[in-house]
């Protein structure tokens, strides 16, 4: 059975990816700061409680995965959060919190499994970036900084892993109906669904091994919000 790691898998895009790959009979390993009991209803899903902004908990999660599988076929770095604000007025510590969760978690977890992928000359790493990775938003502040950094990390990984047949794909979703948009007075049709992003990841992974979709930009049909 093939295996996939999906960080931040209890809600939103992460949850949709977990459900999609569980449905496709993958062994799914996921984590979040709090557990969602409904995950237990999904077959082949293993949950570990962890705050990936803490390097020690990244290592603990990686050890948990290795206890249950020898090889990881897919890694989806999805953990992240958003606090609106501007560089000149956001609270002290906002940048550090965003970088630790949105970038460092992906960096440290990737390092836990990428050497195994290199040795096997097989694997696929997805980094869930954002349209904020390429577009500066007035109220984006440290979130934009962190997502620009994550896309940069993806580009570096892509170049490094080319010779080893390990694929790297950056996913750049626009407005997706998740908890980040809670309380916004807009119709649901103005957003993409988390399931749409999960389907794109599935499709990208099922491409022939000779081809990689390096960057995938998704927006609602009516445009970003």
From TrEMBL:
It comes from the Bacteria. InterPro entries: NAD(P)-bd_dom_sf, Sc_DH/Rdtase_CS, SDR_fam. Pfam families: adh_short. It is an enzyme of class 1 (oxidoreductase). PROSITE patterns: ADH_SHORT (PS00061). The keyword Signal does not apply. One of its GO terms (molecular function) is oxidoreductase activity. Its EC number is 1.-.-.-. Keywords: Oxidoreductase. Belongs to the short-chain dehydrogenases/reductases (SDR) family. This is SDR family oxidoreductase.
